[in-house]
């Protein structure tokens, strides 16, 4: 948003109103598109007062759905924290056949429909899926159970950690690692004691974005979880069911909380990012 | 920064440090690759195998089934309408943000990123609260224009516009900021007005970021589900999009239909992402 010396269009006369018009159009668009719906949700949730919101949020199903969502999101954060950083490291520092191809695939979860993600997981882990019989013989249930929800969330949040870390790893350069290696450190030791501390901010951003995305995932967990009330009801699935059952205040309140939490997470990442820069 | 639009260029491999322990190295690479295989490659392979189980002809028949075809065309045309509006308004927003100073500028800047932070299901809920048939606006529009917003294409387009608002803005803005002013100044010296400069000098320089932002928003729109599931409802031939159709096919255990439409969606998304990648790489390197 830097304002250059040339910020004012060179042509003076007649453009002041043109400029005001353009600014007005953009503001009107943003207000209609973004502000109005947010305001409507606030109004909808508060229609029956704060007491109704508190009562809606205190329902046992709501608390259970928030707990489940949080648990899944935390698992996603830990798994991507460990394995995602390994993938980022290998993609930047190692050379092997198919690396460029694999690198292109990392972004696929951004483009794949969440429903398709859930369906793919059913095809692999479902009762009639590829690994279904094997899992059944071991008595492990993935589809229509919490492990399936975790896998779905892992899929949709895959790129965040990797994409935050790769540029930092690249910028960090191999020199310090080489120095550590000269002193006899293994690649693992170098990673944990030399590289990781240098990457910590990329790591923090990646975790925050993963968490925010995981909290709001809906399509993939809906398909893979099958929406079994109580067992696979995450916060988003609760909203979906509540709307179907016309429990509007409940749906709006949970939506409000979910939106606020995600917003606070993403905003604080932005603020930290600017500070660190 | 918008994460969803960030498609960084392929990394340049750096030579791995000094001779590291062989086993640690292979262990690391093997673990990383196994992780990607389990999460990404196996599910992708399985869906293609499933969709092609009756050959390409079977897949095509499943795609051409009336409900599937109608869902796909609805998805494509609503996404196209969104893409056109988004290209125009996104570019305008980026231009206003970058070139003018006005009150509330930082608020507007925050608003642009808001859709990325809000879960799309919540977006859908917000739109229903605002435009639903029982609400003041919804019933007014229906009475005056005889037009439904919710459970109809206008709602789908609104939801897509909300979800993809940052895509074009955030693609155009950095390029606009880094644009050399020399050409614009030269045009001004030659007597060109602000409008002419914009159309003839500024806009052509922004063609690539506008295209990439628009294509990415289109790709995103093809797969969008959360917002649409709430806003569009699930009326076959009327408001059923491809993602909602796949959900229905999964629930009724119509596997070939689900796999076929999924493969078409995957193919469109992947092609668009590759095109965007190509566009970004053919852009001449800019000095940072």
Task: Please explain how this structure is put together.
The complex is a heterodimer of chains A (277) and B (288). Chain A has 277 residues and is mainly alpha-helical. Chain A has a single domain, classed as MetI-like fold. Chain A has 14 helices and no strands. The longest helix of chain A has 34 residues. The radius of gyration of chain A is 23 Å and the shape is globular. Chain B has 288 residues and is mostly helical. Chain B folds into two domains: 30 residues; 227 residues, MetI-like (MetI-like fold, Orthogonal Bundle). Helices cover 75% and strands 0% of the residues of chain B. Chain B is built from 13 helices and no strands. In chain B, α12 packs antiparallel against α13. The two termini of chain B are 18 Å apart. The N terminus of chain B is likely disordered. Classes of the chains: A mainly alpha (277), B mainly alpha (288). Chains A and B meet through α1, α3, α4, α5 and α6 of A and α1, α3, α4, α5 and α7 of B.
- Element string of chain B (H = helix, E = strand): HHHHHHHHHHHHH
The count of strands of chain B amounts to 0
CATH architecture annotation name of chain A: Orthogonal Bundle
Give the rounded overall mean pLDDT of chain B.
85
Q: Any idea what the shape of chain B is? A: globular
Helical fraction of chain B equals over 70%
Number of beta strands of chain A: 0
Tell me the β content of chain B.
under 5%
CATH superfamily of the largest domain in chain B: MetI-like
CATH class of chain A: Mainly Alpha
Assembly form of the protein: heterodimer
Q: What would the principal axes of the Cα set say about the shape of chain A?
A: globular
Largest sheet descriptor of chain A: none
């Amino acid at each position: 948003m830097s304002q250059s010396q040339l910020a004012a269009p060179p042509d003076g006369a007649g453009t002041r109103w043109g400029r005001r018009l353009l600014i007005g159009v953009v503001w009107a668009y943003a207000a209609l598109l973004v502000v109005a719906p947010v305001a409507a949700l606030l109004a909808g949730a508060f229609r029956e007062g704060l007491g109704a919101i508190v009562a809606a949020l205190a329902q046992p199903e709501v608390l259970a759905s928030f707990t489940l969502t949080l648990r899944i999101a935390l698992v996603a954060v830990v798994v991507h924290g460990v394995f995602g950083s390994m993938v980022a490291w290998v993609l930047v520092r190692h050379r092997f056949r198919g690396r460029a191809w694999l690198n292109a695939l990392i972004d696929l979860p951004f483009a794949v429909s969440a429903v398709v993600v859930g369906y793919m997981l059913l095809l692999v882990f479902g009762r009639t899926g590829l690994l279904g019989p094997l899992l059944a013989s071991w008595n492990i249930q993935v589809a229509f159970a919490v492990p399936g929800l975790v896998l779905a969330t892992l899929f949709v949040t895959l790129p965040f950690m990797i994409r935050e870390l790769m540029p930092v790893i690249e910028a960090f350069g191999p020199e310090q690692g080489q120095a550590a290696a000269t002193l006899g450190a293994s690649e693992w030791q170098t990673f944990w004691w030399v590289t990781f501390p240098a990457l910590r901010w990329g790591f923090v951003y990646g975790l925050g974005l993963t968490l925010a995305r995981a909290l709001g995932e809906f399509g993939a967990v809906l398909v893979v979880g099958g929406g079994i009330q109580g067992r696979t009801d995450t916060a988003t699935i609760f909203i979906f069911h509540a709307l179907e059952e016309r429990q509007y205040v409940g749906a709006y309140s949970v939506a409000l909380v979910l939106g606020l939490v995600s917003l606070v997470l993403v905003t604080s990442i932005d603020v930290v990012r600017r500070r660190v820069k | 920064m918008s994460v969803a639009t960030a498609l960084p260029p392929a990394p340049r491999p750096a030579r791995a440090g000094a001779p590291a322990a062989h086993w640690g190295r292979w262990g690391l690479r093997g673990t990383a690759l196994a992780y990607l295989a389990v999460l990404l490659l196996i599910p992708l392979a399985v869906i293609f195998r499933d969709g092609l189980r009756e050959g390409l002809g079977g897949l095509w028949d499943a795609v051409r089934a009336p409900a599937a075809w109608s869902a796909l065309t609805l998805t494509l045309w609503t996404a196209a309408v969104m893409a056109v509006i988004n290209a125009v308004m996104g570019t305008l927003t980026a231009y206003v943000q970058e070139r003018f100073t006005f009150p509330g500028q930082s608020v507007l800047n925050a608003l642009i990123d808001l859709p990325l932070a809000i879960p799309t299901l919540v977006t859908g809920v917000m739109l229903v609260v605002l435009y639903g048939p029982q609400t003041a606006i919804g019933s007014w529009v229906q009475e005056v224009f005889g037009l439904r917003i919710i459970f109809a294409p206008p709602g789908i387009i609104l939801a897509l516009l909300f979800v993809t608002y940052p895509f074009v803005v955030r693609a155009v803005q950095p390029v606009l900021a880094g644009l050399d002013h020399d050409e614009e100044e030269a045009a001004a010296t030659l007597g060109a007005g602000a409008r002419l400069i914009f159309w003839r000098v500024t806009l052509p320089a922004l063609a690539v970021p506008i295209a990439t932002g628009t294509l990415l928003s289109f790709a995103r729109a093809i797969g969008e589900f959360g917002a649409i599931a709430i806003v569009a409802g699930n009326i076959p031939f009327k408001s059923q999009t491809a993602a909602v159709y796949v959900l229905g096919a999964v629930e009724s255990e119509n596997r070939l239909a689900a796999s076929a439409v999924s493969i078409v969606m995957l193919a469109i998304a992947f092609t668009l992402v590759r095109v965007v990648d190509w566009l970004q790489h053919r852009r001449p390197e800019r000095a940072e």
